[in-house]
Amino acid sequence: MPLEPVAQLAPALLDSGAGPAASLLGASFREGYVGSIIAVSLYVSLTAVALSTLVSVPAAVAIGLAEFPGKGFVKSVVNTGMGFPSVVVGLVVLFAVSNQGPLGSLELIFTREAMIMSQFVLATPPITAISLAAVSGVDDGVRDAARVLGGTRIDVALVVIKEAKYGIATAVLAGFGRAVSEVGSVLIVGGNITSADGISKTRTLTTAIQLEARQGRYETAMVLGAVLVALVLTVNAIVVRFGDRGVA
Amino acid sequence: MLRATGVSRSYGDERVFRDLTIDVDAGEVVAVIGPSGVGKTTLLRTLALSLEPDEGTVTLDGTDAWAVDESARLALRRRVGMVFQEASLFGGSVARNVEYGLRVRRSWSERIASLFRLSGAADAVHESLEVVGLADKTDQPADSLSGGEAQRVSFARALAYDPDALLLDEPTSDLDPRNTAVIEEAIGEAKARGIGVVVATHDMHQAERVADRVAVLLDDGITEIGPTEEIFDDPADERTRKFISGELVY
């Protein structure tokens, strides 16, 4: 199946949810439809992963360095979290942000913030679990050395994070991969909405692909899929490059 | 200066040693000899204030390290250095490793500045590396060193912040004669600087070469401690005599 350039696919995308405003969208698609989808996807996924990293990495270091009863159980729970069905996560977040839910007053339903919440929940277990494995793999001798050389608990933790940086980078990439490729929960809590001028409000690459494929516009879906893969590869390359520069 | 008095230590139900007393003064080298698995490493960790003894006290210049609060204990711990059997170097350059002990003693603002340069520590780093003959390796990645070089960097790392006491756990057990000689010379340099050195070794010849006093650790305690010549030539304890002569095999 030959792939057409994205700009030539405008007619296929114009009626992909904009409804009555479709006639207005000829120029809008070329100007910003795909770009807005990419922007929303990156904004939601990167924000969710950044927030998750801020929580997951310290949690992984704390669990990895501490000795306490039930540590094995905690690790099992974290590992189990990697298998959370995304649709169930979406349902739970939808309930939380719905009018009747505990966060209803914040009016987050069908917003990017709700999508960030659901992706945060999905990204946290893999980032924590893989970071924990990386931290646990750091040689005990290195921790001992940091301590006997006068390091505080924070100093020891920083040394461990530095030694485990490749594993932690892998964890962040895995979390990003899970977030950016997620369909079910963002569809439920985000609603796959575009504005009247065809610019994405809560439509992501994955939900757009799902919509295009369902409507039989396979070329469009495949082009968006290629964009998604390119995005993941780009973020991967940036993280790996960043990790390499941190060696010295 | 650094003294453990009547210390006992167990891991679970397994007693490592009991009622053990040992001390080291400034500018003195004390060797702890004994067979593998007798508790030399545990003793050194206890002296390094990394392990709390089940019983007894560990004092540095008369201050009981386990009777003070955590911040005071950290201050005491920072006056003691330790080198392990394995070098356990951090990732990064040789200089970053040697600078570590100095870095953690600085304020956070100074430490952030030192991420970009070896501020104020370059002389100490260079001087410590010179002691172990590796001043030309300052910028080399630590993971590119040979085992012997890594151990010498580990020694320089502990020497850089000028500790009052230096504890060496089998520092040459995996090294060739050349690297062993460098480490033994460095022990002499530490002694000349007024540092009290405790070196755990199963190499009795090494103990004879470097130590002013020798402690013999057998079974679950020190059988004898005294001047090196006296321990090797005229031991008072029968088990010491048998161990040194090779009659007591573990």
TrEMBL record, chain A:
Q: Which PROSITE patterns match?
A: ABC_TM1
Q: Which UniProt keywords apply?
A: Membrane, Transmembrane, Transmembrane helix, Transport
Residue span of the signal peptide, if any? none
Q: How does it sit in the membrane?
A: Multi-pass membrane protein
Tell me if Transport is a UniProt keyword of this record: yes
Q: Which CDD domains match?
A: TM_PBP2
Record-annotated ABC transmembrane type-1 domain positions: 38-239
Spell out the InterPro entries in the cross-references.
Answer: ABC_perm_TupB-like, MetI-like, MetI-like_sf
| Compartment annotation | Cell membrane; Membrane
A GO CC annotation given for this chain: plasma membrane
Question: Which terms under GO biological process does the entry name?
Answer: transmembrane transport
Q: Which family does it belong to?
A: Belongs to the binding-protein-dependent transport system permease family.
Provide the protein name.
Answer: Molybdenum ABC transporter permease
- Which species does this protein come from? Halorubrum ezzemoulense DSM 17463
TrEMBL record, chain B:
Keyword annotations for this protein, in alphabetical order, are: ATP-binding, Cell membrane, Membrane, Nucleotide-binding, Transport
Q: Which terms in the Gene Ontology molecular function aspect does this entry carry?
A: ATP binding; ATP hydrolysis activity; phosphate transmembrane transporter activity
Q: Which GO terms describe its biological process?
A: phosphate ion transmembrane transport
Annotated ABC transporter domain residues: 2-244
Q: Name a GO CC annotation attached to this entry.
A: membrane
Domain of life here? Archaea
Q: Which residues cross the membrane?
A: none
Q: Please provide an example of a Pfam family that matches this protein in its UniProt record.
A: ABC_tran
Which PANTHER family does the record match to this protein? ABC TRANSPORTER I FAMILY MEMBER 17
Any idea what this protein is called?
Phosphate ABC transporter ATP-binding protein
Q: Which organism is it from?
A: Halorubrum ezzemoulense DSM 17463
